[in-house]
Amino acid sequence: MKIAGLASNRGRNLRHIADAAPGGAELSVVLTNREQAPVLGAATERRIPTEVVERDEGESRESHERRIVERLSDYDVDLVCLDGYMRVLTDEFLDAVPTTLNVHPSLLPAFPGTDAHEQVLEAGVRSTGCTVHVVTEEVDAGPVVTQEPIPVYEDDDADSLKARVLREAEFTAYPRAVRWFAEDRVTVERDADGNPKRVAVEGDVGGDFPERRFVSEERTASLRYGENPHQDAALYVDDGCEEASVVDADQLNPGAKGMGYNNYNDADAALDLVKEFDEPAAAVIKHTNPAGCAVGSDLADAYDRALRTDAKSAFGGIVALNRECDADTATAVADSFKEVVVAPGYTDSALDVLREKKNLRVLDVGPLGEGEDHFSERFTEKPIVGGRLVQERDRQSPTADDLEVVTEREPTDEQIETMLFAWKTLKHVKSNGILFATGTETVGVGMGQVSRVDAVTLAAMKAEKDAEGKSAEGAVMASDAFFPFPDAVEEAADAGIEAVIQPGGSVNDEDVIAAADERDIAMAFTGSRCFRHD
After folding, report:
1. Tens-place pLDDT, residues 64-94
2. Deepest of 249, 446, 461, 510, by most Cβ within 10 A of its Cβ?
3. Catalytic annotation on 104?
4. Which of the residues 104, 117, 133, 428 is marked catalytic?
5. What is the pTM of this model?
6. Calpha distance 263→494 (Å, rounded)
7. H/E stretch holding 64
8. NCBIfam families recorded for this chain (predicted)?
9. 206-to-173, 203, 210, 534 alpha-carbon distances in Å
10. How far apart are CA 438 and CA 415, in angstroms?
Protein backbone atom coordinates (compact mmCIF):
# COMPACT_ATOMS: atom_id res chain seq x y z
CA MET A 1 0.00 0.00 0.00
CA LYS A 2 1.27 3.47 -0.93
CA ILE A 3 0.50 6.46 1.29
CA ALA A 4 0.53 10.19 0.65
CA GLY A 5 1.22 12.11 3.84
CA LEU A 6 0.08 15.71 4.28
CA ALA A 7 1.56 17.83 7.07
CA SER A 8 2.04 21.50 7.84
CA ASN A 9 4.69 21.19 10.55
CA ARG A 10 6.91 18.38 11.88
CA GLY A 11 4.78 15.41 10.82
CA ARG A 12 5.91 13.18 13.67
CA ASN A 13 3.14 10.66 13.06
CA LEU A 14 4.09 10.44 9.40
CA ARG A 15 7.73 9.88 10.34
CA HIS A 16 6.68 7.15 12.76
CA ILE A 17 4.51 5.47 10.13
CA ALA A 18 7.35 5.65 7.59
CA ASP A 19 9.73 3.99 10.07
CA ALA A 20 7.24 1.36 11.26
CA ALA A 21 5.84 0.49 7.79
CA PRO A 22 2.68 -1.03 9.34
CA GLY A 23 1.36 -3.88 7.22
CA GLY A 24 4.11 -3.16 4.70
CA ALA A 25 2.64 0.27 3.92
CA GLU A 26 5.05 2.70 2.24
CA LEU A 27 5.03 6.47 2.62
CA SER A 28 5.46 7.36 -1.06
CA VAL A 29 5.28 11.14 -0.84
CA VAL A 30 5.09 13.87 1.78
CA LEU A 31 3.27 17.03 0.75
CA THR A 32 3.12 20.24 2.74
CA ASN A 33 1.53 23.65 2.32
CA ARG A 34 4.49 25.39 4.02
CA GLU A 35 7.84 25.91 2.32
CA GLN A 36 9.72 25.77 5.64
CA ALA A 37 7.85 22.85 7.23
CA PRO A 38 10.30 20.64 9.24
CA VAL A 39 8.63 17.53 7.85
CA LEU A 40 10.43 18.15 4.56
CA GLY A 41 13.85 17.54 6.11
CA ALA A 42 12.61 14.44 7.92
CA ALA A 43 11.22 13.06 4.65
CA THR A 44 14.43 13.82 2.77
CA GLU A 45 16.45 11.96 5.42
CA ARG A 46 14.25 8.92 4.73
CA ARG A 47 14.55 9.37 0.98
CA ILE A 48 10.83 10.04 0.65
CA PRO A 49 9.82 12.35 -2.23
CA THR A 50 8.40 15.70 -1.14
CA GLU A 51 6.06 18.24 -2.63
CA VAL A 52 5.34 21.82 -1.55
CA VAL A 53 2.07 23.40 -2.64
CA GLU A 54 1.53 26.71 -0.90
CA ARG A 55 -1.77 28.53 -1.24
CA ASP A 56 -1.41 31.70 -3.23
CA GLU A 57 -2.74 34.95 -1.83
CA GLY A 58 -6.40 35.25 -2.71
CA GLU A 59 -6.51 31.70 -4.11
CA SER A 60 -9.66 29.73 -3.32
CA ARG A 61 -9.50 26.57 -1.26
CA GLU A 62 -10.83 24.56 -4.18
CA SER A 63 -8.16 25.87 -6.54
CA HIS A 64 -5.42 25.11 -4.05
CA GLU A 65 -6.74 21.60 -3.53
CA ARG A 66 -6.91 20.96 -7.28
CA ARG A 67 -3.20 21.77 -7.51
CA ILE A 68 -2.49 19.39 -4.60
CA VAL A 69 -4.46 16.61 -6.29
CA GLU A 70 -2.54 17.20 -9.50
CA ARG A 71 0.79 16.83 -7.66
CA LEU A 72 -0.34 13.65 -5.95
CA SER A 73 -1.57 12.12 -9.19
CA ASP A 74 2.02 11.21 -10.12
CA TYR A 75 2.36 8.90 -7.09
CA ASP A 76 -0.57 6.46 -7.50
CA VAL A 77 -1.34 6.35 -3.76
CA ASP A 78 -3.90 4.12 -2.02
CA LEU A 79 -4.42 6.12 1.17
CA VAL A 80 -3.93 9.70 2.32
CA CYS A 81 -2.83 10.39 5.90
CA LEU A 82 -3.02 13.83 7.45
CA ASP A 83 -0.76 14.82 10.33
CA GLY A 84 -1.19 18.33 11.62
CA TYR A 85 -2.26 19.51 8.19
CA MET A 86 -3.71 22.88 9.10
CA ARG A 87 -6.25 23.24 6.35
CA VAL A 88 -9.91 22.21 6.29
CA LEU A 89 -10.34 20.02 3.21
CA THR A 90 -13.31 20.27 0.89
CA ASP A 91 -15.01 17.72 -1.32
CA GLU A 92 -12.86 19.07 -4.16
CA PHE A 93 -9.98 17.18 -2.59
CA LEU A 94 -11.78 14.35 -0.79
CA ASP A 95 -13.70 13.18 -3.86
CA ALA A 96 -10.56 13.12 -6.00
CA VAL A 97 -8.26 11.05 -3.76
CA PRO A 98 -8.49 7.70 -1.96
CA THR A 99 -9.78 7.48 1.61
CA THR A 100 -8.20 10.21 3.74
CA LEU A 101 -7.42 9.70 7.42
CA ASN A 102 -6.60 12.11 10.21
CA VAL A 103 -5.58 11.66 13.84
CA HIS A 104 -7.15 13.91 16.46
CA PRO A 105 -5.71 14.20 19.99
CA SER A 106 -8.85 13.32 21.95
CA LEU A 107 -11.47 10.61 22.09
CA LEU A 108 -13.95 12.09 19.65
CA PRO A 109 -16.67 13.22 19.69
CA ALA A 110 -15.39 14.73 22.94
CA PHE A 111 -13.10 17.75 22.66
CA PRO A 112 -12.88 18.52 18.92
CA GLY A 113 -10.90 21.46 17.60
CA THR A 114 -7.33 22.70 17.92
CA ASP A 115 -7.26 23.03 21.73
CA ALA A 116 -8.24 19.48 22.71
CA HIS A 117 -5.72 19.16 25.55
CA GLU A 118 -6.82 22.40 27.18
CA GLN A 119 -10.45 21.27 26.91
CA VAL A 120 -9.60 17.93 28.52
CA LEU A 121 -7.89 19.59 31.49
CA GLU A 122 -10.66 22.16 31.93
CA ALA A 123 -13.31 19.42 31.89
CA GLY A 124 -11.46 17.44 34.57
CA VAL A 125 -11.92 14.09 32.82
CA ARG A 126 -9.72 11.19 33.90
CA SER A 127 -9.08 9.69 30.46
CA THR A 128 -8.23 11.08 27.06
CA GLY A 129 -6.45 9.66 24.04
CA CYS A 130 -6.65 9.94 20.28
CA THR A 131 -9.01 9.14 17.44
CA VAL A 132 -8.11 8.09 13.91
CA HIS A 133 -11.04 8.92 11.65
CA VAL A 134 -12.02 9.26 8.03
CA VAL A 135 -11.83 12.90 6.95
CA THR A 136 -15.00 14.68 5.83
CA GLU A 137 -15.77 18.31 5.12
CA GLU A 138 -17.11 18.59 8.65
CA VAL A 139 -14.10 19.03 10.94
CA ASP A 140 -13.34 16.16 13.40
CA ALA A 141 -16.64 14.48 12.58
CA GLY A 142 -15.82 11.67 10.17
CA PRO A 143 -16.46 8.02 11.12
CA VAL A 144 -14.01 6.54 13.60
CA VAL A 145 -11.48 3.94 12.46
CA THR A 146 -9.84 3.35 15.85
CA GLN A 147 -9.12 5.03 19.17
CA GLU A 148 -6.52 4.68 21.90
CA PRO A 149 -7.11 5.85 25.51
CA ILE A 150 -4.58 7.10 28.05
CA PRO A 151 -5.07 8.35 31.64
CA VAL A 152 -5.06 12.00 32.66
CA TYR A 153 -3.01 12.68 35.81
CA GLU A 154 -3.39 15.40 38.43
CA ASP A 155 0.02 16.87 37.56
CA ASP A 156 -0.66 17.04 33.82
CA ASP A 157 -0.57 20.29 31.92
CA ALA A 158 -1.28 20.81 28.23
CA ASP A 159 2.34 20.16 27.26
CA SER A 160 2.75 16.92 29.20
CA LEU A 161 -0.63 15.68 28.00
CA LYS A 162 0.23 16.51 24.40
CA ALA A 163 3.50 14.60 24.61
CA ARG A 164 1.89 11.51 26.16
CA VAL A 165 -1.06 11.47 23.76
CA LEU A 166 1.39 11.56 20.87
CA ARG A 167 3.72 8.79 22.05
CA GLU A 168 1.32 6.54 23.97
CA ALA A 169 -1.83 6.95 21.88
CA GLU A 170 -1.18 8.37 18.40
CA PHE A 171 1.98 6.30 17.80
CA THR A 172 -0.14 3.22 18.56
CA ALA A 173 -3.47 4.02 16.92
CA TYR A 174 -2.35 5.59 13.65
CA PRO A 175 -0.08 2.70 12.59
CA ARG A 176 -2.85 0.28 13.60
CA ALA A 177 -5.31 2.05 11.30
CA VAL A 178 -2.81 2.09 8.44
CA ARG A 179 -2.07 -1.61 8.95
CA TRP A 180 -5.77 -2.44 8.80
CA PHE A 181 -6.06 -0.61 5.48
CA ALA A 182 -2.88 -2.26 4.17
CA GLU A 183 -4.32 -5.66 5.07
CA ASP A 184 -7.54 -4.78 3.20
CA ARG A 185 -9.62 -5.24 6.34
CA VAL A 186 -11.41 -1.88 6.34
CA THR A 187 -14.75 -1.12 4.75
CA VAL A 188 -15.84 2.52 4.68
CA GLU A 189 -19.63 2.44 4.52
CA ARG A 190 -21.17 5.42 2.75
CA ASP A 191 -24.61 6.97 2.46
CA ALA A 192 -26.59 7.46 -0.74
CA ASP A 193 -24.63 10.64 -1.52
CA GLY A 194 -21.29 8.85 -1.12
CA ASN A 195 -20.42 10.43 2.22
CA PRO A 196 -18.57 8.15 4.69
CA LYS A 197 -20.83 7.20 7.60
CA ARG A 198 -19.28 4.20 9.33
CA VAL A 199 -16.11 2.14 9.32
CA ALA A 200 -16.15 -1.67 9.71
CA VAL A 201 -12.95 -3.63 10.43
CA GLU A 202 -12.82 -7.31 9.56
CA GLY A 203 -11.44 -9.43 12.40
CA ASP A 204 -11.61 -6.70 15.04
CA VAL A 205 -13.12 -9.11 17.54
CA GLY A 206 -12.97 -9.90 21.25
CA GLY A 207 -12.60 -13.30 22.94
CA ASP A 208 -9.73 -14.78 24.92
CA PHE A 209 -7.11 -13.24 22.64
CA PRO A 210 -8.82 -10.12 21.29
CA GLU A 211 -7.61 -8.07 18.37
CA ARG A 212 -6.90 -5.17 20.71
CA ARG A 213 -6.28 -4.97 24.46
CA PHE A 214 -6.50 -2.04 26.86
CA VAL A 215 -4.80 -2.79 30.18
CA SER A 216 -5.50 -0.58 33.17
CA GLU A 217 -3.84 -1.25 36.52
CA GLU A 218 -3.32 0.83 39.63
CA ARG A 219 0.02 1.35 41.34
CA THR A 220 -0.31 -0.15 44.78
CA ALA A 221 3.28 0.23 46.00
CA SER A 222 6.61 1.82 45.15
CA LEU A 223 9.21 -0.85 45.82
CA ARG A 224 12.60 -0.31 47.40
CA TYR A 225 14.25 -1.36 44.15
CA GLY A 226 13.92 -3.83 41.30
CA GLU A 227 15.87 -7.00 40.69
CA ASN A 228 19.00 -5.04 41.63
CA PRO A 229 19.47 -1.95 43.82
CA HIS A 230 20.20 0.32 40.84
CA GLN A 231 16.80 -0.45 39.26
CA ASP A 232 13.63 1.40 40.27
CA ALA A 233 10.43 -0.66 40.56
CA ALA A 234 6.76 -0.48 41.44
CA LEU A 235 3.89 -2.91 41.99
CA TYR A 236 0.60 -2.57 40.12
CA VAL A 237 -2.63 -4.27 41.11
CA ASP A 238 -5.40 -5.70 38.98
CA ASP A 239 -8.48 -5.02 41.11
CA GLY A 240 -10.51 -7.41 38.97
CA CYS A 241 -8.48 -10.45 40.06
CA GLU A 242 -10.47 -12.80 42.30
CA GLU A 243 -7.74 -15.41 42.83
CA ALA A 244 -5.66 -15.47 46.02
CA SER A 245 -2.44 -13.61 45.27
CA VAL A 246 0.55 -12.00 46.94
CA VAL A 247 -0.21 -8.64 45.33
CA ASP A 248 -2.82 -7.59 47.86
CA ALA A 249 -1.82 -9.96 50.67
CA ASP A 250 -1.82 -8.61 54.21
CA GLN A 251 1.69 -8.38 55.70
CA LEU A 252 1.34 -9.56 59.29
CA ASN A 253 4.81 -8.77 60.62
CA PRO A 254 4.71 -4.98 60.89
CA GLY A 255 8.36 -4.69 61.91
CA ALA A 256 9.68 -6.33 58.75
CA LYS A 257 11.03 -4.54 55.71
CA GLY A 258 8.66 -3.99 52.82
CA MET A 259 8.39 -6.49 50.02
CA GLY A 260 10.80 -6.01 47.13
CA TYR A 261 10.56 -6.87 43.43
CA ASN A 262 12.30 -10.23 43.88
CA ASN A 263 10.25 -11.00 46.98
CA TYR A 264 6.99 -10.54 45.07
CA ASN A 265 8.24 -12.51 42.09
CA ASP A 266 9.42 -15.45 44.20
CA ALA A 267 6.40 -15.38 46.49
CA ASP A 268 4.07 -15.47 43.49
CA ALA A 269 5.94 -18.49 42.11
CA ALA A 270 5.79 -20.27 45.47
CA LEU A 271 2.07 -19.66 45.95
CA ASP A 272 1.32 -20.78 42.39
CA LEU A 273 3.07 -24.09 43.09
CA VAL A 274 1.27 -25.02 46.32
CA LYS A 275 -2.08 -24.21 44.70
CA GLU A 276 -1.54 -27.35 42.62
CA PHE A 277 -2.34 -29.60 45.58
CA ASP A 278 -5.47 -30.25 47.62
CA GLU A 279 -3.56 -32.14 50.32
CA PRO A 280 -1.32 -30.29 52.83
CA ALA A 281 1.58 -28.98 50.73
CA ALA A 282 4.65 -26.83 51.22
CA ALA A 283 7.20 -25.41 48.82
CA VAL A 284 10.49 -23.61 49.28
CA ILE A 285 11.37 -21.33 46.36
CA LYS A 286 14.65 -19.70 45.39
CA HIS A 287 14.82 -17.40 42.38
CA THR A 288 11.35 -18.64 41.31
CA ASN A 289 12.54 -22.28 41.19
CA PRO A 290 11.51 -24.94 43.73
CA ALA A 291 14.36 -25.85 46.06
CA GLY A 292 11.89 -28.40 47.41
CA CYS A 293 8.22 -29.30 47.43
CA ALA A 294 6.21 -31.95 49.22
CA VAL A 295 2.75 -33.13 50.13
CA GLY A 296 2.46 -34.57 53.64
CA SER A 297 0.09 -35.90 56.24
CA ASP A 298 -0.01 -32.42 57.77
CA LEU A 299 1.57 -29.05 57.05
CA ALA A 300 4.59 -29.50 59.32
CA ASP A 301 5.33 -32.87 57.71
CA ALA A 302 5.01 -31.39 54.21
CA TYR A 303 7.35 -28.52 55.07
CA ASP A 304 9.92 -30.85 56.61
CA ARG A 305 9.92 -33.05 53.49
CA ALA A 306 10.19 -30.03 51.19
CA LEU A 307 13.00 -28.44 53.17
CA ARG A 308 15.09 -31.59 53.33
CA THR A 309 15.32 -31.66 49.54
CA ASP A 310 17.85 -28.82 49.64
CA ALA A 311 18.02 -27.02 52.97
CA LYS A 312 21.24 -25.30 51.89
CA SER A 313 19.59 -23.57 48.93
CA ALA A 314 16.47 -22.85 51.00
CA PHE A 315 18.50 -20.35 53.06
CA GLY A 316 17.07 -16.91 52.27
CA GLY A 317 14.25 -18.46 50.25
CA ILE A 318 10.48 -18.14 50.10
CA VAL A 319 8.11 -20.57 51.84
CA ALA A 320 4.57 -21.16 50.60
CA LEU A 321 1.93 -23.24 52.38
CA ASN A 322 -1.54 -24.20 51.20
CA ARG A 323 -3.03 -24.52 54.69
CA GLU A 324 -3.34 -22.23 57.68
CA CYS A 325 0.13 -22.09 59.23
CA ASP A 326 0.24 -23.66 62.71
CA ALA A 327 2.81 -23.25 65.47
CA ASP A 328 4.78 -26.42 64.61
CA THR A 329 5.19 -25.37 61.00
CA ALA A 330 6.00 -21.80 62.00
CA THR A 331 8.71 -23.03 64.37
CA ALA A 332 10.29 -25.07 61.58
CA VAL A 333 10.12 -22.15 59.14
CA ALA A 334 11.70 -19.78 61.65
CA ASP A 335 14.52 -22.22 62.38
CA SER A 336 16.63 -20.78 59.56
CA PHE A 337 16.72 -17.53 57.61
CA LYS A 338 13.81 -17.05 55.19
CA GLU A 339 12.74 -13.92 53.36
CA VAL A 340 8.98 -14.50 53.06
CA VAL A 341 6.35 -16.98 54.18
CA VAL A 342 3.04 -17.12 52.31
CA ALA A 343 -0.06 -18.91 53.59
CA PRO A 344 -3.88 -18.67 53.56
CA GLY A 345 -3.91 -17.74 57.25
CA TYR A 346 -1.99 -18.20 60.51
CA THR A 347 -2.90 -19.27 64.00
CA ASP A 348 -2.15 -16.80 66.75
CA SER A 349 0.56 -19.06 68.12
CA ALA A 350 2.14 -19.32 64.67
CA LEU A 351 2.24 -15.53 64.40
CA ASP A 352 3.88 -15.28 67.82
CA VAL A 353 6.69 -17.48 66.53
CA LEU A 354 7.09 -15.85 63.13
CA ARG A 355 7.05 -12.30 64.48
CA GLU A 356 10.17 -13.06 66.48
CA LYS A 357 12.00 -12.97 63.16
CA LYS A 358 12.38 -9.23 62.64
CA ASN A 359 12.71 -9.16 58.86
CA LEU A 360 10.57 -12.15 57.91
CA ARG A 361 7.70 -10.95 55.74
CA VAL A 362 4.56 -12.85 56.73
CA LEU A 363 1.91 -12.73 53.99
CA ASP A 364 -1.70 -13.80 54.45
CA VAL A 365 -3.29 -14.31 51.02
CA GLY A 366 -6.67 -15.41 52.33
CA PRO A 367 -8.61 -18.55 51.32
CA LEU A 368 -7.24 -20.48 48.35
CA GLY A 369 -10.48 -22.28 47.48
CA GLU A 370 -10.56 -25.94 46.52
CA GLY A 371 -9.46 -27.82 43.41
CA GLU A 372 -9.93 -25.79 40.26
CA ASP A 373 -11.23 -22.93 42.40
CA HIS A 374 -7.58 -22.27 43.28
CA PHE A 375 -7.26 -20.70 39.86
CA SER A 376 -9.51 -17.98 38.49
CA GLU A 377 -7.00 -16.14 36.34
CA ARG A 378 -6.78 -17.95 32.98
CA PHE A 379 -3.87 -16.08 31.45
CA THR A 380 -0.33 -15.02 32.24
CA GLU A 381 1.58 -12.17 30.67
CA LYS A 382 5.21 -11.35 30.09
CA PRO A 383 6.22 -7.91 28.85
CA ILE A 384 8.97 -7.88 26.26
CA VAL A 385 10.61 -4.91 24.58
CA GLY A 386 8.04 -3.47 22.20
CA GLY A 387 5.14 -5.67 23.26
CA ARG A 388 3.67 -8.26 25.57
CA LEU A 389 3.30 -12.05 25.43
CA VAL A 390 -0.01 -13.46 26.65
CA GLN A 391 -0.77 -17.15 27.14
CA GLU A 392 -3.10 -19.48 28.98
CA ARG A 393 -1.76 -20.68 32.30
CA ASP A 394 -0.48 -24.25 32.33
CA ARG A 395 -3.29 -25.89 34.26
CA GLN A 396 -2.76 -29.39 32.89
CA SER A 397 -3.04 -32.00 35.62
CA PRO A 398 -2.79 -35.51 34.15
CA THR A 399 -4.36 -38.47 35.93
CA ALA A 400 -3.25 -42.08 35.92
CA ASP A 401 -5.67 -42.75 33.07
CA ASP A 402 -3.93 -40.09 30.96
CA LEU A 403 -0.54 -41.79 31.11
CA GLU A 404 0.66 -44.06 28.32
CA VAL A 405 3.05 -46.73 29.60
CA VAL A 406 5.54 -47.40 26.82
CA THR A 407 8.06 -49.79 28.43
CA GLU A 408 8.04 -53.47 29.17
CA ARG A 409 8.10 -52.71 32.86
CA GLU A 410 4.84 -51.30 34.25
CA PRO A 411 5.12 -48.61 36.93
CA THR A 412 3.72 -49.53 40.33
CA ASP A 413 0.76 -47.67 41.80
CA GLU A 414 3.18 -45.87 44.12
CA GLN A 415 5.35 -44.83 41.18
CA ILE A 416 2.33 -43.52 39.28
CA GLU A 417 1.35 -41.43 42.31
CA THR A 418 4.89 -40.05 42.40
CA MET A 419 4.84 -39.39 38.65
CA LEU A 420 1.70 -37.27 38.98
CA PHE A 421 3.11 -35.36 41.97
CA ALA A 422 6.40 -34.79 40.12
CA TRP A 423 4.62 -33.53 37.01
CA LYS A 424 2.60 -30.96 38.94
CA THR A 425 5.77 -29.71 40.61
CA LEU A 426 7.88 -29.79 37.46
CA LYS A 427 5.53 -27.31 35.78
CA HIS A 428 7.07 -24.73 38.10
CA VAL A 429 10.72 -25.53 37.33
CA LYS A 430 12.53 -23.46 34.73
CA SER A 431 13.30 -25.35 31.54
CA ASN A 432 15.24 -27.39 30.75
CA GLY A 433 13.80 -28.98 33.89
CA ILE A 434 14.33 -32.38 35.48
CA LEU A 435 12.87 -33.43 38.82
CA PHE A 436 13.57 -36.51 40.96
CA ALA A 437 10.89 -37.53 43.47
CA THR A 438 9.88 -40.33 45.80
CA GLY A 439 6.44 -40.65 47.33
CA THR A 440 5.07 -37.12 47.25
CA GLU A 441 8.27 -35.21 47.88
CA THR A 442 11.10 -33.89 45.77
CA VAL A 443 14.54 -35.48 45.95
CA GLY A 444 16.57 -33.42 43.50
CA VAL A 445 15.84 -30.63 41.03
CA GLY A 446 17.81 -29.73 37.91
CA MET A 447 16.58 -26.46 36.47
CA GLY A 448 17.37 -23.86 33.84
CA GLN A 449 19.93 -25.90 31.92
CA VAL A 450 20.59 -25.55 28.19
CA SER A 451 21.14 -29.31 27.98
CA ARG A 452 18.60 -31.87 29.20
CA VAL A 453 21.43 -34.25 30.09
CA ASP A 454 23.00 -31.52 32.23
CA ALA A 455 19.64 -31.06 33.98
CA VAL A 456 19.63 -34.78 34.83
CA THR A 457 23.21 -34.55 36.07
CA LEU A 458 22.33 -31.54 38.22
CA ALA A 459 19.27 -33.23 39.74
CA ALA A 460 21.37 -36.30 40.55
CA MET A 461 24.11 -34.17 42.08
CA LYS A 462 21.62 -32.22 44.23
CA ALA A 463 20.03 -35.45 45.40
CA GLU A 464 23.42 -36.90 46.29
CA LYS A 465 24.99 -33.82 47.92
CA ASP A 466 22.16 -31.70 49.34
CA ALA A 467 19.13 -33.87 50.05
CA GLU A 468 18.90 -34.90 53.71
CA GLY A 469 17.75 -38.50 54.25
CA LYS A 470 16.78 -38.84 50.57
CA SER A 471 18.29 -40.61 47.61
CA ALA A 472 17.87 -40.88 43.86
CA GLU A 473 18.05 -44.64 44.28
CA GLY A 474 14.63 -46.01 43.33
CA ALA A 475 13.24 -42.53 42.60
CA VAL A 476 11.02 -41.31 39.76
CA MET A 477 12.34 -38.83 37.22
CA ALA A 478 10.12 -36.25 35.49
CA SER A 479 11.22 -34.36 32.37
CA ASP A 480 9.41 -31.26 31.12
CA ALA A 481 10.03 -32.17 27.46
CA PHE A 482 10.90 -35.26 25.47
CA PHE A 483 14.37 -36.79 25.42
CA PRO A 484 15.95 -36.26 22.00
CA PHE A 485 18.45 -39.04 22.66
CA PRO A 486 18.82 -41.95 25.13
CA ASP A 487 21.74 -40.30 26.96
CA ALA A 488 19.57 -38.59 29.61
CA VAL A 489 17.83 -41.87 30.47
CA GLU A 490 21.21 -43.60 30.68
CA GLU A 491 22.44 -40.86 33.02
CA ALA A 492 19.31 -41.23 35.15
CA ALA A 493 19.74 -45.00 35.36
CA ASP A 494 23.28 -44.53 36.64
CA ALA A 495 21.84 -42.30 39.39
CA GLY A 496 19.38 -45.03 40.44
CA ILE A 497 16.16 -43.85 38.77
CA GLU A 498 13.60 -46.64 38.33
CA ALA A 499 10.70 -44.84 36.63
CA VAL A 500 10.32 -41.90 34.25
CA ILE A 501 7.46 -39.60 33.24
CA GLN A 502 7.99 -37.50 30.14
CA PRO A 503 5.93 -36.06 27.25
CA GLY A 504 7.20 -38.33 24.49
CA GLY A 505 7.07 -37.25 20.87
CA SER A 506 10.74 -37.36 19.92
CA VAL A 507 11.78 -38.86 16.58
CA ASN A 508 14.05 -41.01 18.72
CA ASP A 509 11.36 -42.25 21.13
CA GLU A 510 12.03 -45.86 20.15
CA ASP A 511 15.71 -45.52 21.08
CA VAL A 512 14.81 -43.83 24.37
CA ILE A 513 12.28 -46.55 25.23
CA ALA A 514 14.83 -49.23 24.32
CA ALA A 515 17.35 -47.62 26.66
CA ALA A 516 14.77 -47.72 29.46
CA ASP A 517 13.93 -51.36 28.74
CA GLU A 518 17.60 -52.32 28.79
CA ARG A 519 17.87 -50.82 32.28
CA ASP A 520 14.54 -52.16 33.56
CA ILE A 521 13.09 -48.64 33.94
CA ALA A 522 9.34 -48.01 33.73
CA MET A 523 8.39 -45.10 31.51
CA ALA A 524 5.11 -43.29 30.87
CA PHE A 525 4.26 -40.57 28.35
CA THR A 526 1.97 -37.63 29.17
CA GLY A 527 1.54 -36.56 25.54
CA SER A 528 2.18 -32.92 26.41
CA ARG A 529 5.17 -30.97 27.68
CA CYS A 530 5.36 -28.42 30.49
CA PHE A 531 8.05 -25.92 29.55
CA ARG A 532 8.46 -22.92 31.80
CA HIS A 533 10.69 -20.25 30.31
CA ASP A 534 9.96 -17.13 32.36
Report:
1. 999 999 999 999 999 999 999 999 999 999 9
2. 446
3. yes
4. 104
5. 0.87
6. 37
7. helix 61-72
8. PRK00881.1, PurN
9. 17, 9, 4, 26
10. 8
